[in-house]
Amino acid sequence: MPSWLALGFQDSSSPSMGELSCLHDHVMTIMFSVIILITYIMVYLLVNTKYYKFLSEGTFIETIWSMVPAFLLIILVLPSMKVLYMMEDVKSPVLTFKIVAHQWYWSYVVPLFKNFSYSFNSFESLSSYEFDSMLEEHSLDSDFPRLLGCSSDLFVPVNTTSRLLITSTDVIHSFALPSLGLKVDALPGRINQLFSNPSRVGSFFGQCSEICGSNHSFMPISLKVCGLTDYDNVSKSYLLDIVGDSLGGDFSF
Ligand SMILES: [Cu+2]
């Protein structure tokens, strides 16, 4: 959850975001050590007036100042590769959510639980539910974060690996949920893939992160992570909605 004047990352709510935060701290530690050392050496060289006149080469010191940066690069790249492969290569997601970006709202296609899939006739079996999610204004004096409320939330079960397929119908958007460590571009004509494994329940907010038009700031993402029983109930309500719509259409007296 974003908070006022926060300079660092949001609290991580998934293992991959935890790893990303650790990687950030690791890189920053090395970076600031290097900056401080180099600044010290440069200032020392600027103010120093004495030098050793016969020093024109030194194999030993040259070996050291070539090896140390190479070593630093290796200890930067190894954890980075680890996180990259951890986030990319998920073998068996449980659920698949399709996320489609529009100017300027998101629409979601969510899976219904298998035992709820409902057959209208022998040719058609429903296993997903589609809905749009627009910006919904809350009153300014409410505690609700400004410009982050959505008309419909995307529900995702906790501690479950979900696959998010992200695409766009018009221009390039970007699906981003900082506290889960998710961000990927939504490109028209291409499907991008993300894996989420939220480790705690709650409300998580994100926004479109690609300048996509005049209402770019007004297409927030609201994701609710819930327990499996709650997800079950949400699934049921989607199913009832579908069945209700279909009966209303098919049976007119
Ligand atoms: Cu956008």
How would you sum up this structure, described in words?
This protein has 253 residues and is α+β, with helices and mostly antiparallel strands. The chain is built from 3 helices and 12 strands, in the order ααββββββββββββα. The strands form 4 sheets. The chain has a 5-stranded mixed beta sheet with strand order 5-2-1-7-10. A 3-stranded mixed beta sheet has the order 6-12-11. A hairpin with a 4-residue loop joins β8 (173-177) and β9. α1 (15-47) runs antiparallel to α2. The longest helix is centred in the N-terminal third of the chain and has 33 residues, at 15-47. It is elongated, with a radius of gyration of 25 Å. It binds copper (II) ion. The site of copper (II) ion has 7 residues, from loops.
Question: Can you describe this structure in just a few lines?
Answer:
By secondary structure, the chain is an alpha+beta fold.
Write the layout of secondary structure elements.
Blueprint: H1 15-47, H2 59-88, E1 95-102, E2 105-111, E3 118-121, E4 124-126, E5 128-133, E6 154-157, E7 162-168, E8 173-177, E9 182-186, E10 192-196, E11 202-207, E12 220-226, H3 228-250
Parallel strand pairs: 1-7, 6-12
Antiparallel strand pairs: 1-2, 2-5, 3-4, 7-10, 8-9, 11-12
Q: Helical stretch count?
A: 3
- Anisotropy-based shape: elongated
Helical fraction equals 25-40%
User: Which architecture name of the largest domain does CATH use?
Assistant: Sandwich
Kindly provide the name of the CATH class of the largest domain: Mainly Beta
CATH topology of the largest domain: Immunoglobulin-like
- The H-level CATH homologous superfamily of the largest domain, spelled out, is Cupredoxins -  blue copper proteins
Q: What is the oligomeric state here? A: single chain
The number of domains is 2
**Cα distance, first to last residue?**
50 Å
Which sequence of strands runs across the widest sheet?
5-2-1-7-10
Strand percentage: 25-35%
Which sheet architecture does the biggest sheet show? 5 strands, mixed
Q: Tell me how many strands there are.
A: 12
